[in-house]
Amino acid sequence: MPRPIHAIVSHSALRHNYALAKLAVPHAKVLAVVKANGYGHGLERVTRALPQADGFATLEIDGAIALRNRGFTDTILLLEGYFDPAELRAVQAAELATVIHCEEQIAMIEAQPPTRPLDAWFKINTGMNRLGFPLARARHCLERLERTGATRSITLMTHFANSDQPGGVEEEMRRFNEVTRGIALPRSLANSAAIFAHPDTHGDCVRQGITLYGATPFADRPAKALGLRPAMDFRSELIAIQDLEPGDCVGYGSDYRCEVAMRIGVVACGYADGYPRHAPSGTPILVAGGRTKIAGRVSMDMITVDLRPVPEARIGSPVVMWGEGIPVDEVAMAAGTVGYELLCAVAPRVRIGETDAF
Length: 358
Ligand SMILES: *Cc1c(COP(=O)(O)O)cnc(C)c1O
Known about the structure:
By secondary structure, the protein is of the alpha/beta class. Helix content is 27%, strand content 25%. The chain is elongated, with a radius of gyration of 23 Å. The structure holds pyridoxal-5'-phosphate (PLP). Residues 33, 35, 79, 159, 191-193, 207-210, 217 line the site of pyridoxal-5'-phosphate.
């Protein structure tokens, strides 16, 4: 038998979470965001689970082209657009939709007459200050893009910095509406947090990322409260058990010291599998169906867990690092990060399977 760590991705959970966004956004399209290999779930797997999706958004062009070649005919959006003229040609050849966020990208269109018309997503910087045309230049640059004659559609878009906060989109919406006033083009503003918290941002098309995978973008609204289901179960097994005496220590640095006699379980999962090394003792984990806590430092290939709450645990007992019964967001919170990072970081050495059963 191979090392027991593996992940299982649920097609039905992906479809359920996508359907929740569709319900929340009845009058707009929902693009499923599948960048970073479908937030670690597998680009091919996630797109196959959602054949009815209105479209997909990613930023790695190889995956976008592969998706097109597999026969998906609707929108495939590149969220950072193209990086050089060769990529612009590839965008056109595969009929990908592309974000255009800076004047250099418009200049590339001007320099090489397009072979096919482009679906352009014109990105406006409303305060995030990463990508997008500055407010003061946006109108001018939009006209410049239109003058190329290279586009068959233009969607106006922005991305929010604080949509997980109450009132976190007000100033950005004001800026976006002011700069786009009177322009009769479709709009796309909302990420997951805005889909569920800010209906005024829905526009014509939303971009659902983290909630598709069943994790929450909010610090104070658990995924379950939003009706989401975890799309990934990250599982392993106990491969060893140590019976320890008071004063015995566990793992590197001997950080965890037993106060009482206790059993410590050793799980085949470490930071080289994508488990966060910064998860401290006390981080929740599911062992033999019961909740317990990790005890001692996360090492490259193993974590150690307190077996007192699960006396029935044996070598071979199942462990869930996150998934059903143990939200990735709880593990992330304990480790000082967010579910996004943990899901994306599941390592290549972890086998990923899939199911339709949960
Ligand atoms: C990643 C991304 C999204 C999805 O955000 P979530 O918070 O995961 O829903 C939406 N829009 C853009 C531009 C992105 O880069």
